[in-house]
Amino acid sequence: MECAFFSVAADAARWFNLLENAFYPFPFPLSGLPLRRFHSLVRDRLMFLRLLRHAGPTVVTGLVAVGLVSAVLPALAAAATGWLLSSLSGDFTAPLVAVGGLLLVGQGCQIASGLIGLAATSRVDIAHRAEVAKVATGTATVDVIERQDTQDLLGTARADLGEWVEKTPGQGAVAALRIILQYFGLTASAVVVAAWSPWLVPVLIVPALAVRAHAIRLWKRRFQNFVDGMEHHRRYRYWGELPMNRSEAKEMRIFGLTEWAIGNHQLELHRHLDDEWTHNRTMVLAQWMQTAASLIPLAGVFCAVGYATAVQGSPVGVASAALSAGWGIFTAIANHGETINIEGSRASLKALAELRERLEPEKQDRSLGTIDSDGPPLVRFVGVEFGYDERTPIMKGLDLEIRPGETLAVVGFNGAGKSTLIKLLAGVYRPTGGGITADGVGTAEIERWNAKLAIVFQDFVKYHLTVAENISLGFPGPADPELIGKAIEDAGFGDVVARLDAGADTPLDRSRDRGTDFSGGQWQQLALARALYAIGRGAKILVLDEPTAHLDVRTEKALFDRLEGLTDGMTTILVSHRLSTVRRADRIVLLADGKVAESGTHAELTALGGDYAHMYRLQAERYKSGYDDRLEAGELR
Amino acid sequence: MKQLRAYARMHRELFAISLKREPRITVGTMACLVFGAIAFAVTGLSMKYVVDSMVERDATAAIIAAFLAALSFTLDRSISGVYYILQRELIDKVGHIDLDPAIMRAAGTLPEVDHLEHTEFLDRMTALRNKAWAVIWSTLLVGEACSMALRLLLALAILGTTSPWLLLMLPCAAVQLILDRRGQAHEKQSELDLAEDKRIQDHLFELCLSASAGKEIRSTGAAPELLERYGAAADRARTTRLRGQFTGSLWRIAGWCVFAIGFTISIGLVIAQVQRGTATAGDVMLAATIGAMLREVVSRAVSSAAGATGTIRVLEPYLWLREYAEEHRETGERKPAPERLTDGIRLRNLHFTYRGTETPAVEGVSVDLPAGSVVAVVGEYGSGKTTLMKLLAGLHRPSAGAIEVDGTDLSEMDIESWRSSMSATFQDFGRYHTTFAEAIAIGDLRGGSAAALDAAVAAADADSLRSRLPDGDQTQLGTRFGGVEISEGQWQKVALARSCMRPAPLLFLLDEPTASLDAPSEQAVFDSYMARSKQIASATGSITVIVSHRFSTVAGADLILVMKHGRLIESGGHDALLSAGGTYAELYGIHAASYS
């Protein structure tokens, strides 16, 4: 049923576009091959119509039925009025009821059309945004997502109706269907006019199409202006939202930054919209040209009908119907409101198509290899080179072996590439040179390599979902409540969760109903629980990127004590700059200048007297002196 | 009624703002509305004369009337086209140039931050984000509604003079309007009901598109689950909205039935007059034309009203914010912050409970922070340390008790002057997606010399970061606008440098200032901050308050406050606390042991 509809719709679109195209060039120079233009127009409209598959057959059927009735209604009303005027001397009940009934049906259709239109629009939009999110999360690496041009495309594709010139794909799809239906209305009105005289039909239709084409051209330019200024648009929205962000709000008060943010907002705003405002002058002027182009044929036809009827004494009813329907032709065709919806939504569809094209090749490759071992694999970084941009290399031929079951600590100065190492291991960035293997197979080719890893990122994600959901999202597949409970206990915040209103089902967002929020430390424990859950589900390598930065000492110590028991048989990689926490590691590597600079146990590295020893001494000094103080205080007593 | 007056006042104000911002466009928009109504009236009348002159076989009159009809049809259409363009420009200009800044100002300069932390407020703030255009749009919709009322009046005059029977249409139109309003109430309710699902939907969508969340989403393979939850939340929101719209539509259709009946009966009565010879065929044409157009007028009036209902989603929070900002704005005579501290800051039985929660976050804290001291606050998480900092900065108003600065209650002090004489960095520091230099320089908008910037960068140990930036100080930070990606620790250094820009703050708050830094950086930062604190302290008696889990940071403080469950359980110097053998000594023992 659905398929049948779409093929019919496609045919209809083709024919009506043929009609539109045939008249398109009239008062304007013909540019390009009309055939090519025709093809692209058909393809374009079909793209919009195809979106309606997301709305479902019932909604689409309703939309078509209601749309058809509304489209032909003005013609029917004109005919009914004519009929009524012809029956003035006799029994007028039937035509009168027809006139009144059509009025009611028209209004009912308008309301139903709004409701069904909303149903269709929202379904198409949800599907569109889901697709955008799917494409955005579908790439193996994130570097392509970070790129400015990708973010621009995502910004356009999301079809966020913050700006009122933007329309959603759903609105575009519904509009494409309504435009087709408009032509039914046009035909119906033409039939009523033709009842008076057929030669009036082309006199009205041709200029109406020309006016329509002209208006559409101007609107297209306007939308292009808007899309071109997207960068500025995003910036002024950013500044506009800043005073409402919790983190920045505190500093904005302390440093008095509100006026500064407003200044930036205004600057970007003008960069974006000044052109559009200039273009508005053109559009207003053009409106008068369109008025003239409509008035001349319409007045000609009206006068001809009035004159001929008055002179010949032909039936007034048919003439009146022709007058009403003549105007109906203009309203049916010169109405470009729906075209605005199409143009407004085009940008986001185009952006999605472009995103697909750009991100498709980046998609996860088919797995070429697997690793068999049940335990943790042997991971090797061989001559790995990497930089976020070409000018600043982070990794300059890094060689590192991570042995199964060992606890490896990675230390280094800020910006030495500790976090980058983790991202390379996770495969969310690909080395620009060298390679990373697990048991001899390139990690990029291993099926579900990420399922082997349980990573606590430094900037882990805070889902505004429940505690349990926050944890179960650490591993793909259905949630395992038992393992979630265990992960909460193991991460050491069972008592915190137990105190919550709804336990693990409490949403972690103050703005949600009965929701709460965690402190920095509690979130960090939750992130750890997320990784422990992944371990429970079968991950073999635990990676902790600064896992205790926000924890107090007691919790930190308890945590590391507990971890020791939990990570037996696992490979553990610990990135930390708090050196007290890395001392227990089997091996410590110090990253510097894109390579491993030092490697060994705590004792070995301290004895080596290099950077590690220096860092350690610095940190320890203060504690040591504190410790001495205590001894003195004790002696005094 | 009170609300109605508030709306009326707001629309008057907004109209005045538009007139001031764009006098020509504002007048043009109004003119479109008036001339549109006139064209509407002429259409009906000319159609009547066309029919009458055709019946009377008066060719000249028929031509004139037909031309007038064509002219008024076309003009009505063109005017609405021009109106559309003009009103858009007006909305853009007033919305973005006048209202956006006004909202930003209200949100950004309220003394406290409660409005960003509680659900009830947050909902409203979210509704307002970048939505100022809807506020001015609502005023234009009121203008449109007035123009529709004008059309109704003209219709009344024309119909009334043609045949009094035709006036029957008008009360029916009124019934329609009343029923429509009932329908709108259902729609409004459904919009409120779906707010939470909408928020979840937006949050998850945002995460999927973000690059920083992207790496974890990929490594955990969470994307399918997230998409599923996104879809579920979106569907719930959609169903709620449609249900509300459906109920609303039923009311509307009921209203239209009433109107259609009135329309049919009144035309029937006119035809009866025609048959008696007291009316003409033209009158029937007029009645049918005006009647049909009346349908459009009423439905446009309704859609303007519906649009206005839609904007209530924004108007309600807008009015709320204005009122809230008005109420919470400081009034009356305020004492300026002192030039220097002589006694210090005294906390008297300080209590604070977050709105919507029951357990106090800070409970009965009384302590003196002497002028010129470095104070460290320690405690396990959730013990109220950050809340205490926020109270000191005046970001929350104590529920009970007081903070006295050199004997002056903070609640009596001019909060802006107090803030401008302090500096701070918070655990959740701001990340400004602008240039490196600007992100730091905004720490002191009044001063900010190049030398001060250099000093601040050095104090935050951000020199090496600075030297590695591809475009130097002008490097754009964050990938959001095509800048460089910097790490958590590097963002923290930028925040730290920002907090060092003010030359001599009386109060310097450092909430976990080095949590994301490596050991040498931490050391360097801490040393320079200590030196700086001591130096400023001797000049102005300033107080530095540091929240930290790092005992290395804490041990050097003059006064250490140990917090637990919102209460102050121990306070004193490092040595005294160690010898007391309480919680502090225990925590310190664990820490020191890890380095021994």
TrEMBL record, chain B:
Residues 215-310 form the ABC transmembrane type-1 domain. Residues 345-590 form the ABC transporter domain. GO terms for molecular function: ABC-type transporter activity; ATP binding; ATP hydrolysis activity; ATPase-coupled lipid transmembrane transporter activity. It comes from the Bacteria. It is a multi-pass membrane protein. It is found in: Cell membrane. Keywords: ATP-binding, Membrane, Nucleotide-binding, Transmembrane, Transmembrane helix. The chain crosses the membrane at residues 25-47, 59-86, 132-150, 156-179, 250-272. Pfam families: ABC_tran (PF00005). Gene3D superfamilies: ABC transporter type 1, transmembrane domain, P-loop containing nucleotide triphosphate hydrolases. Coiled coil: none annotated. SMART domains: AAA (SM00382). GO terms for cellular component: plasma membrane. The keyword Transcription does not apply. This is ABC transporter ATP-binding protein. It comes from Glycomyces buryatensis.
